[in-house]
Write a structure and sequence with these properties.
Peptide Methionine Sulfoxide Reductase, Chain A; six-stranded mixed beta sheet
Length: about 180
């Protein structure tokens, strides 16, 4: 099995991580930061909006089970790619909708996924395709957040279950059993 990686931003990484952990073929999901200009940023620095980083996830996946394009389709279906630099109440460039392709094939797939997503939304999709810069894993307490403390966090309880419902409704055939 050859593991490939996808780096996607779509708002709070706690919320996106919870979605992708449900998918068959997903081997790992790591919350972190990319797309900015500061080395080794902390959560507080990224949240300030001053580093240019996005809260993102790095998904390790088996392309024999789930494709990169499928991962992007899930992303577009479980966050609002028409909101510029925000997701709901989370506002700032760190919450932007972005795809960070690792190679030209992923970039081509990202452009195709944006075109597919545009058919589902009446407003323009504003998701950016950005160069993949250095990946910085988020602090340990952010990893697997929904499975731990997140299910007692009011913010997560308000945001994550609707995303999981969308995932189950549209992608039930791709969920882990």
């Amino acid at each position: 099995m050859a593991i490939e990686y996808a780096v996607i931003a779509g708002g709070c990484f706690w919320c996106t991580e919870a979605v992708f952990n449900q998918l068959a073929g997903v081997i790992s999901v790591e919350s972190g930061y990319t797309g900015g200009n500061r080395a080794n940023p902390t959560y507080e620095q990224v949240c300030s909006g001053a580093t240019g980083h996005a809260e993102a996830i790095r998904i390790g996946f088996d392309p024999e089970i789930i494709s990169y394009g499928d991962l992007l389709d899930v992303s577009f279906a479980t966050h609002d790619p028409t909101q510029h630099n925000r997701q709901g109440n989370d506002i700032g460039t760190q919450y932007r909708s972005a795809i960070f392709p690792a190679n030209p094939g992923q970039e081509q797939d990202a452009r195709a996924a944006i075109a597919r997503a545009q058919q589902d939304y009446p407003n323009p999709v504003v998701t950016t395709i950005e160069p993949l810069k250095i990946w910085y894993p988020a602090e340990a307490y952010h990893q697997g957040y929904w499975e731990g403390a997140g299910q007692r966090n009011g913010y997560c309880l308000a945001v994550i279950p609707p995303k999981l419902q969308k995932l189950q409704k549209r992608f039930s055939h791709q969920l882990k059993s």
